[in-house]
Write a structure and sequence with these properties.
mainly alpha
């Protein structure tokens, strides 16, 4: 008995939504999504601000 391995096309194919089904967020889903986004983007933005600050400090130190 061999199992059929799905092809990449089958895996990436969009699944059809059942007619009449409505996707609704639960009570705390929006808060959880915001928390997850903050945990991802806060370190990235903080790192970018720190790098920009270091570059500005280096240029002001060199040209002053």
């Amino acid at each position: 008995m061999s199992r059929h391995k799905p092809t990449i096309h089958e895996m990436l194919e969009k699944k059809q939504k059942k007619p009449g089904k409505v996707d609704e967020l639960e009570k705390d889903d929006f808060r959880a999504l915001n928390k997850a986004a903050f945990q991802v983007f806060a370190p990235v933005i903080l790192g970018a601000v720190i790098i920009l600050g270091v570059i500005i400090a280096i240029f002001t130190w060199i040209y002053s």
